[in-house]
Amino acid sequence: MIPMNAMDAGWLLLDGPSSPLHVSVLLEFTKAKERRQVSIYDEWRTRYLRHKPCPPFNYVAQMPWSRGYWPHWVQASSFEFSEHIRPVALVSPHDQTADLEALAGWLHGLPLSRSRPLWEVYLIEGLSDHRYAILMKVHHSLIDGVGGMRHLYAALSADPRATAKAPLWAHECPTVTHRPRPTAAAPGARWSSRTWTRLQGLLRDGLSGEVPLPFSASRSCLNQDINPSRQLLSCDLDLATMQHLAKEHGGHLNDSLLLYVSEAMRAHVRHVKLKAAPLKAIMPFSTRCDGDLSSGSQLGFAVAELHNDISRVDQRFKRIIASTRSTKRILGALSHQEQAWLTAGLGGAFLAGQKVPFLRHHAPPFGNLVVSNVQGPDQTLYLNGDQLDRVVPLSVLLDGQALNATGLSYRGRLHLSFVSCPSVLGDTAHLGKAVRRFARGQLKRCGGVQPISL
Asked: For a Cys-Cys bond, which of 44, 102, 176, 404 suits 292, CB 3.0-4.6 Å?
């Protein structure tokens, strides 16, 4: 029996038919020349059938609330390959990108069975030009996005001649024990007094408008209850252009991502013919140490203003940078333990808001949408000699947050995905058009920039 931390238990408690809380990643590969006749599913079944899952891919959730016990994990005694690895094929796709995204969105919306370890892999064949795709789903309680991508990259290789001896679910990765950063706060009452003083300062800055606070956003068309259907829309952006844009204005890559998303939100407001109201984005950030591949979620949450009601791009970007800078200043003043307490408190308040319909429908939302960014590798990666071309993340949706925008960098590109509930937002093609048009304008303005390290 393995104890479950409070955040992971919260993910499982929030999980439901309309909000399956797993994260997915869509990987697109091109087969090596000598492997073009290989069936990927047959190869995997022959090569990996007898590989048993390693932690956390052999964890089964136990939620004995009714018996008064805290949730915990137990290790599965058996592994059935066909329950977790499934073949899918696109048959004569009309538009490969659109059809693949439609399939990925549908698969992403399907729930995971609680009776077995909470992950699945879909091998998608039928693409042109000797290509195939892999969609992997893992429940957020098993691992967060950053930890999941580190697991994934550890199972791939920068050597096109290398052969994966073990699949991702059986890949044993060394973990780094997480140690909190040193803090000068004294234990006991003194620590609590200092923490309370800092949190009072955070609240005071938020009420004065200096720092955006959680649960201070105005309700918008995005803050509605959702159903299980999911829609994926992805855009490939030039990473160097976004870095150059951020450096030019004294910001960071996350600020550029927020600017691109704010442009998409302006397009959505025009599309639904509503008045442009300022939106606030929930920004999850990882609290993992470098090299930490341990299971479970290690996340904190911040709020950033999108300022999508400002038409001038330069003015809007300055306001976005000022918003994130003030948030970083406040969070940076907190110790690691204080950040953990703040995250736990916000998580508890959000959980209550999700479980109590009156609060979910009438209280101010945590934020209007979720925007996150995950850093990936710069070098080309391979799986059994097949080249990884694109990495598209698919994140979670919850009642009250019908849109999630996630950026993931790989090989000089930032793959931005919008995961939405179509019953709330409808067709989101206008979001992609707005982002691509804005990206072309920025690329033309920058005139072919060189990569910048920020």
From this structure: 176
316 and 252 Cβ atoms separated by less than 8 Å: no
Give the span between the Cα atoms of 304 and 211, in whole angstroms. 8
What is the DSSP pairing of strand 72-75 with strand 2-3? Answer: antiparallel
Tokens of 57: 């891919």
Domain extents in the chain:
2-170, 213-375+392-446
**Using 50, 70 and 90 to split pLDDT, how confident is the model at 95?**
confident
| Closest C-alpha to 157, from 37, 29, 59 | 29
Rounded Cα distance between 392 and 408, Å, is: 7
- Two domains, one topology: 2-170 and 213-375+392-446: yes
- pLDDT at res. 180: 41
pTM higher than the cut 0.85: yes
Say how many C-beta atoms besides its own lie within 10 A of residue 91's C-beta: 6
Report how far residue 187's alpha carbon sits from residue 439's, in angstroms, rounded to the nearest whole number. 50
Q: Which positions ≥6 away from 119 have C-beta within 8 Å?
A: 22, 57, 84, 112, 136, 137, 138, 139, 142, 169
Q: What is the DSSP letter of 274?
A: -
Question: Which CATH number is 2-170 given?
Answer: 3.30.559.10
Identity of residue 110: L
Which pLDDT tens digit goes with each residue over 212-256? 778 888 888 898 999 999 999 999 999 999 999 999 999 999 999
Which of 398, 376, 380 is CA-nearest to residue 150?
A: 376
Torsional class of 144: left (φ above 0), alpha (ψ -120 to 50), beta (otherwise): beta
The 3-state DSSP composition of the chain as helix, strand, coil percent (nearest 5) reads: 40, 20, 40
Q: How many whole angstroms from its chain centre is CA 420?
A: 13
Coil, helix or strand at residue 14: helix
Helix ranges, 136-252 (H):
145-155, 188-207, 239-248
Which CATH architecture best describes the domain 213-375+392-446?
2-Layer Sandwich (3.30)
Centre a 10 Å sphere on the Cβ of residue 15 and count the other Cβ atoms it contains: 22
Distances 383 to 33, 156, 325, 327, 363 between C-alpha atoms, Å: 14, 6, 39, 39, 47
